[in-house]
Amino acid sequence: MSTKENMSIDPKSLGKVAVLMGGRSAEREVSLMSGTGVLAALQSKGVDAHGFDPAERAMDDLRREGFARCFIALHGRLGEDGTVQGALELLGIPYTGPGVMASAVAMDKLMTKRIWLAEGLPTPVWRQVHSAAEAEAAFKALGSPMIVKPVREGSTLGLTKVTDAAQCAAAYALAAKQDPHVMCEQFVAGDEVTCPVLGTGAQARALPVIRIVAPEGNYDYQNKYFTDDTQYLVPSGLPEAEEAAIQALVLKAYLALDCRGWARADVMIDAATRKPYLLEINTSPGMTGHSLVPMSARATGMSYEDLCVSVLANAALDNPAPTQET
């Protein structure tokens, strides 16, 4: 949706809006930052928006208090994994972002990779592991460096870049602390990029690619949210054809998981071959001062406030109530 189209949206037509933020995941702190930004942006546009923390209030309050739609600014489990989406389906309240199945699958990196692989989309070689010993065996098979991370967590929480077999036990323990399901993934050395998608079905379109240049190549939780040392390049500086190929790949990845509304995919470009590899897809992207979707949207002329309104206007249900024939 363009800025011009945004201007045609009547804020009152969006009804009473709940911005879901906080929650009970390990990403609560980031979610509160995202939600606070979204809430202020919607209110500045005249939307009747209110903050709502599912960790502190019952979801049924949404129906009881007459909320017409929800902007999901929750991150991680119990917010981005299909659970909240399912609750909103039962309540009959439209919400932003992908539906129940797409959210659940995208939160699970193994399921995501299996679908992408079945669709012929490139993703780094991986192994699921259940112990430190299995992580060490994966290191011997996948080579150095290797990434060890929880299967169902975001924001690089619990992630370790392993360069020596002796590090595998600690890396596995760190990941398992976040999630009992742990995976090892072959590290792809090269440019790290991310690309958002807005829209649904045939209307979905990829936004400009952002190239991420982190201190010493370490794009961890701290460098993502709490320092200004990471560079975000948009325009990306990549060759035009290469950027277009990444946008096309990300759009295919988004549609393969049946995403709708919006999402953001992370990609590594192999330095030697320039082949892009899909890492994961985020179905409730961050909206903090360091977040990437607003940066990419801004490069197209869309402000943070207009982005929030656009995403909200596309709130939907997987199973809307059938219209009554008269």
From TrEMBL:
SUPFAM superfamilies: Glutathione synthetase ATP-binding domain-like (SSF56059), PreATP-grasp domain (SSF52440). Residues 113-313 form the ATP-grasp domain. The keyword Ligase applies. Pathway: Cell wall biogenesis; peptidoglycan biosynthesis. PROSITE patterns: ATP_GRASP (PS50975), DALA_DALA_LIGASE_1 (PS00843), DALA_DALA_LIGASE_2 (PS00844). Gene3D superfamilies: 3.40.50.20, ATP-grasp fold, A domain, ATP-grasp fold, B domain. It is found in: Cytoplasm. Its cofactor is Mg(2+); Mn(2+). The keyword Metal-binding does not apply. GO terms for molecular function: D-alanine-D-alanine ligase activity. Keywords: ATP-binding, Cell shape, Cell wall biogenesis/degradation, Cytoplasm, Ligase, Nucleotide-binding, Peptidoglycan synthesis. It catalyses: 2 D-alanine + ATP = D-alanyl-D-alanine + ADP + phosphate + H(+). Its EC number is 6.3.2.4. Belongs to the D-alanine--D-alanine ligase family. Cell wall formation. This is D-alanine--D-alanine ligase. It comes from Hydrogenophaga palleronii. The lineage of its organism: Bacteria, Pseudomonadati, Pseudomonadota, Betaproteobacteria, Burkholderiales.
